[in-house]
Amino acid sequence: MSFVLLGTEGCHLCDLAAAVTVAGAEGLNIDIYQEDIADSADGVEVYGTRIPVLRNERSGAELDWPFDQEAAHQFLRESTEGMSV
Fold first, then answer.
1. Which DSSP string do the residues of the chain spell out, in sequence order?
2. Which of 6, 7, 30, 50 has the fewest Cβ atoms nearer than 10 Å?
3. What pLDDT is stored for residue 1 in this prediction?
4. What is the pLDDT along the chain (85 residues), one digit of tens a residue?
5. Which residues of 29-42 are buried (b: 16+ CB within 10 A; e: fewer)?
6. CA distance 70 to 42
7. Which domains, ranges and CATH numbers included, belong to the chain?
């Protein structure tokens, strides 16, 4: 299962969210990658005021900032329950 952390270069909150997300993913069999919203045609328009955002690539479910390690873990775990990875 794949998740994406949406952010942009130079965003200190995005750096913090990346660390929190990695810690929250410990013990889960998932892939997480980062995507810069400036690299897509509508990324800034859709996510410009919301980043960082953690998104489940399969379901489209999103977790908006602010979130802590526990909230990230719960979101990631619940997103993967009952689904083959």
1. -EEEEEE-TT-HHHHHHHHHHHHHTTT---EEEEEEGGGSTTHHHHHTTT-SEEEETTT--EEESS--HHHHHHHHHHHHTTS--
2. 50
3. 85
4. 899 999 999 999 999 999 999 999 999 999 999 999 999 989 999 999 999 999 999 999 999 999 999 999 999 999 888 665 4
5. eeebeebebeeeee
6. 30
7. 2-80 (3.40.30.10)
